[in-house]
Amino acid sequence: MSLYRQAIARSDQNQYSTIKAKSLSGIAALYREAGEFDQALQHHAEAIEILDRASAKLDRAEACYQLALTEPKLGNIEKTQENFERAIQLFSEMDASKQVEKVQLARTKNLQKIPN
User: Fold this and answer.
1) Read out DSSP for 33-74?
2) How many whole angstroms from its chain centre is CA 39?
3) Which of 16, 41, 61, 116 sits most deeply, having the most CB atoms within 10 A of its CB?
4) What is d(CA 94, CA 58) in angstroms, rounded to the nearest whole number?
């Protein structure tokens, strides 16, 4: 996590917003793996906000995908589906078919695990 934090500090100094956002997404994934879902959501949200402002479609698609992997841990089924769909839409707009397949597979896998 310290490398991500160093990248954020340097990106703030040099105004590289996409590096900061990608680092925040990385930290969010680490928090998700550690079971600290509120922290993960906070970092995902900040990353997506930065990427929206920067119009960084590819990075935003990946951030939405990562957020969709976190949401089911909190039982946010609607948000999970919305973020998977948003990631698929963004990747589709870039003709990134392998990324679309990755998200579709993860969506199917994750949504099957959620109890009705």
Assistant:
1) HTT-HHHHHHHHHHHHHHHHHHT-HHHHHHHHHHHHHHGGGG
2) 13
3) 61
4) 8
Residues 43 and 66 sit within 8 Å (Cβ to Cβ)? no
113 pLDDT higher than 70: no
Lookup: tokens for 81? 């589906």
As given in the structure block, the two tokens for residue 105 are: 């597979």
Q: Considering the entire predicted model, what is its pTM?
A: 0.86
Q: pLDDT, tens digit, for every residue of 8-36?
A: 877 777 778 898 999 999 999 999 999 99
Contact 77, 114 (CB under 8 A): yes
Whole-number Cα distances in Å, 59 to 109, 111, 115: 22, 23, 30
Instruction: Give the integer Cα–Cα distance in Å for 43 and 47.
Output: 6
| 21 residue type, one letter | A
Query: For residue 115, which of 68, 75, 69, 84 has the smallest C-alpha distance?
Result: 75
